[in-house]
Design a protein that fits this description.
Blueprint: H1 2-19, H2 29-51, H3 58-65, H4 68-76, H5 91-106, H6 115-118, H7 121-145, H8 162-166, H9 177-196, H10 203-223, H11 229-249, E1 257-266, E2 272-281
Antiparallel strand pairs: 1-2
Helix pairs in contact: 2-7, 3-4, 5-9, 5-10, 7-9, 7-11, 9-10, 9-11, 10-11
Keywords: Signal
Domain Phosphatidic acid phosphatase type 2/haloperoxidase: 125-247
Signal peptide: 1-18
């Protein structure tokens, strides 16, 4: 009976190991722990910078936005790529932009239903946290130290009250954190899904969704008067870059390939020889 039990345990272990997929990534607790911890720390520091940011100085506001003539001059000084967005202030668009933004946070968890990824849940979630923390640190520090008026600050129609236009929140146009965070989440999802399922026909749809969702967020953030086009474009590029590069930097090193090396020996006729050998592994 004891031998049968040991045999059953052995067979079960073999079966579990056989079913578990091989991850294309490698995780180092020391390296990645430091990386993630530093990113989280940077995020906290950046958040404190944002919290302590000053409102627009009344004299500065008056000099740049106080009269229609000064306001128009300030708009004219905006680069031509962004100028058209100055004065936008759609509150409905602002609310709509939060919907795909929020969905993008939980979207990567849907990948846990994929059998290949589910076998490595801890590693997958660790990479996701590391990616999001990296984007958060980059954004919060930048938003904390760079002053750029949001498009709604240029709205003198009366729809945007003066307190809102003068507040420190109005100086955080550069760059779009909503878009950067959304792009990190969606492109991370697409990258990891593709690495775990390189032959899946669904990849095209996963990548299409990854590209469209942050673009939609960016459109509504511009319409809301929260950001200019360049703010959205930079957020998109940086967010997508982090979402792709963090998993890529964790890819296992590929030892396959072509190698050429010297060799020698004796033939079956007894003759000694030296030569160059070529080996292809895959």
């Amino acid at each position: 009976m004891k031998n049968l039990l040991l045999l059953a345990i052995t067979l079960l272990t073999i079966s579990v190991n056989a079913q578990k997929s091989e991850s294309p990534y490698e995780w180092d607790w020391t390296r990645d722990g430091i990386w993630t911890g530093a990113a989280l720390g940077g995020s906290v520091g950046g958040f404190l910078l944002i919290q302590n940011k000053d409102d627009i100085d009344p004299d500065t506001f008056e000099a740049n936005f106080g009269t229609p003539e000064r306001l128009q001059e300030s708009i004219d000084n905006i680069n031509f790529i962004d100028r058209w967005a100055a004065g936008k202030h759609d509150e409905n668009a602002n609310k709509i932009s939060d919907i795909p933004f929020a969905i993008s946070f939980v979207g990567p968890f849907a990948m846990l239903f994929d059998d290949e990824i589910n076998d490595h849940t801890g590693q997958y979630l660790g990479l996701y946290l590391e990616s999001m923390a990296t984007t958060a640190a980059m954004y919060t520090i930048t938003a904390g130290v760079v002053n750029r008026s949001r498009p709604y600050v240029y709205d003198d129609s009366g729809d945007t009250n003066l307190d809102r236009r003068r507040s420190n929140n109005g100086q955080r146009s550069f760059y779009s954190g909503h878009v950067a965070t959304t792009a990190t989440a969606t492109f991370f999802t697409a990258k990891v899904y593709s690495d775990f399922n390189p032959d899946s026909p669904a990849k095209i749809w996963v990548w299409t969704g990854a590209a469209v969702v942050p673009a939609a967020v960016g459109y509504f953030r511009i319409e809301a008067g929260q950001h200019f086009l360049t703010d959205v474009a930079l957020g998109y590029a940086l967010g997508a870059g982090v979402g792709i590069l963090v998993p890529e930097l964790h890819k296992k090193k590929n030892t396959d390939g072509l190698s050429i090396y010297p060799t020698g020996g004796r033939t079956f006729l007894g003759d000694d020889y030296t030569a160059m050998a070529m080996r292809l592994t895959f």
